[in-house]
Amino acid sequence: MKNIRNFCIIAHIDHGKSTLADRLLHFTGAISDRDLKEQTLDDMDLERERGITIKSHAIQMEYTHQGETYVLNLIDTPGHVDFSYEVSRSIASCEGALLIVDATQGIQAQTISNLYLAIEHDLEIIPVLNKMDLDSAMPEEVTDQIIDLIGGKREEVIPASGKTGLGVENILQTVVHRVPAPKGDPNAPLQALVFDSVFNSYRGIIAYFKVLNGSISKGDKVKFVNTGKEYNADEIGTLGLDLMPKKEINTGDVGYIISGIKQAKEVKVGDTLTLKANPCEKAVEGFEDVKPMVYAGIYPVDTDEYEELRESMEKLQLNDASLTFEPESSAALGFGFRCGFLGMLHMEIIQERLEREFGMTVITTVPNVSYKAYLKKGEMVEMNNPSDMPDPVHLDYIEEPYISAQIITKSDFVGQVMTLCIEKRGLLKNQVYLTTDRVEISFDMPLAEVVFDFYDRLKTISKGYASFDYSPIGHQKSNLVKMDVLLNGDQVDALSALVHRDNAYNLGKKMCEKLKELIPRQQFDIAIQAALGSKIISRETVKALRKDVTAKCYGGDITRKRKLLEKQKKGKKRMRSVGNVEIPQSAFMAVLKLD
Q: Where would you tag: which of 162, 355, 444, 556 has the fewest CB atoms within 10 A of its CB?
């Protein structure tokens, strides 16, 4: 056990985590030259296309130092704020962390929030200065920033480069010397933490775990503590680039178990694995349930595919425990699911994975957050959907969720960032100059304002330099109204939204104009209206396609033409009462990009 080291890599987006992980694997021979490619650990097509890490990836390597062989378990983690749940799980199964900072960009918001996660779990932090081979690297300044943040000595910061392989050996030696070996009692009953799981269509569910106490052998009868289910350990092993079967896995090591589990809901990430014959006394603690930030409805395009969609979502949830969903139905779209995501990127990735990995085509409704409505009787109703809103007669007030947002940006962009935050109903709390040209601005603002396009606009005004991180701070009272969109007098519930009264007129007008462009013309006029309750605040009309019925009337009396036009008018009226208007999927998504 004293020769095992478990560590993860944490950093901001694009600071070179995955590239450095490739170098470590190559250096220790965990991966042959033939298998080496860019971002070796990112095995999803989507990750490779976008150049981001979405899933944490665990891999084992062996490193010989001063005649002793050490087993190193490395977990590469995502950098984006929307996947911070993955990071928290990886940190729970490690004793040390490499904190990687880009020498050209310095410390950014996500670096700090991931670092705090690691410090809370008492991990040994090893700072690494990456991308030292670039001409624009600023080693002195960035080293100062790291020392300010975590303390320690300047010589403890390891200069490295994922591209050229500089400093890789130094990193491995430091890991061996500074990261503590896992603690645990090899003779105690088995107690293992399940930190991830994947679905394999041939072998069922593969669960990844870290052994905290005791050991597990092939063929043991195991039990999941939270679900109470029992299975046989058909195959156990460690995680190389492929699964490597072993006879036994001991205390402190990380491995996988295949036990023929078919049902997705029988494995919960964060559960405790133990032996049936000799169970451990208590489950592993310290795993909190994830709190979704953004809610949206996901509906199958074809209503017959509802059950298939449910199965796909369950399999996806295995692999991404931060996705939450429950069934709901909508008048316009039929049966579907109300899903909770950690952010807009997370929502986009889930939608794309459903299409790619499971072949499901889905419609996503306008995202929103959950509100609390207080009635005059003193009851509280939670609203995840604008259609849950109680009748205004009984309503006393509504509270909406607020977040505390930290934005780190260059000092040139402070003005624009503040304007954006104030426009989004933010309250300035604090402004700190970290260095002469880097400012940290803190705001309290409603989560609902961040959900739409805040992140995109922040990136635009700061030329991609601002980094953004947020944490929930509870609910506050707010003057909100429900805005409905009506097509020909029929309410489209998938487009309803709860908005602040001051923004309602503006938003209603923009929404109607946008829908007018997107809804295809029919044989009859379509009225698009935005309404607050029974009061119409904006209207646009999609004009009918004109069909020239009088073309065949040459000469003759005007009454012949009039008779035809009257007949057409009646037909249009009838068509309008029975005709229904199809809303294209682009219209649901366009509402997000109203500016």
A: 556
Q: Which residues contact 529 (CB under 8 A, 6 or more apart)?
A: 485, 486, 489, 512, 536, 538, 539
The domain containing residue 234 runs over which residues? 191-275
pTM: 0.70
Residue 555 sits at φ, ψ, to 5 deg, of: 55, -155
**Two tokens at 591?**
């509402």
Does residue 265 sit in the same domain as residue 317? Answer: no
pLDDT of residue 332: 66
For 331-478, strand residue ranges (E) read 334-341, 362-364, 371-375, 380-383, 395-410, 427-435, 438-446, 467-478
Closest by alpha carbon to 367, among 489, 480, 452, 272? 452
Amino acid identity for residue 378 in this structure = G
Over the stretch 225-239, which tens digit does the pLDDT of each residue have? Answer: 888 888 888 999 888
| Assigned domain for 64 exists | yes
In angstroms, the CA 375 to CA 13 distance is 44
Asked if residue 390 and residue 317 are part of one domain, the reply reads no
Q: Is residue 359 part of a domain?
A: no
186 within some domain: no
CATH value at residue 19: 3.40.50.300
Alpha-carbon distance 464 to 485, whole Å? 34
Task: Say yes or no: 143 and 124 in one domain.
Answer: yes
Q: 262 vs 26, 266, 313, 350, 357, CA distance in Å?
A: 35, 8, 15, 22, 18
CA 592-593-595 angle, to 5 degrees, is 125
Q: What is the mean pLDDT of residues 320-339?
A: 81
Same domain as 268, residue 146:
no
Say whether both 474 and 487 belong to one domain: no
What is the 8-class DSSP label of residue 546? P
512/566 same-domain check: yes
Average pLDDT over residues 406-429: 87
